Prior knowledge:
By secondary structure, the chain is mainly alpha-helical. Helix content is 76%, strand content 0%.
Amino acid sequence: MNAAARNSGLVATRLGAFLLRDLREALSYKFTFVSSLAGILFSTATFFFVAKLVPPGAPSLAPYGGDYFSFAVVGVAFSSLLGIFQAGLPSVIRHAQVSGTLEAVLATPASVPIVLVGSSLYSLVFQTVRTVLHLAVAVLIFGMALGPVDWAGVA
């Protein structure tokens, strides 16, 4: 095994350890974890019923396909994901400072980039799963029409 393959395996192992650590912490707060996922159902239902109040084909919604429900669900789902990209790393570092774990994590043999990426990896993965679940609930339960999707743009 060459050095590059061994190094990439070590990076993946360390990132996996960060992901597992944060998953275990999130699962230790069971009510928060479950209510976060249940919130997807409730917020989607709210938008579904609010959309009934917006007349179909409203001129202001024409650029978005004319459907308020789809507009609102996609907007909320992806705004949460974009929020992770904007504030994820600073909030993770701040949490580690407040909880007193930043120094201990930085003292590990993992490099600073691995610590930074690894510490924010769970938030990114969890919010990506939430976004997919939000869209899946809207499509499967509430019948949201996706229409033509630019998958490259989504990625």
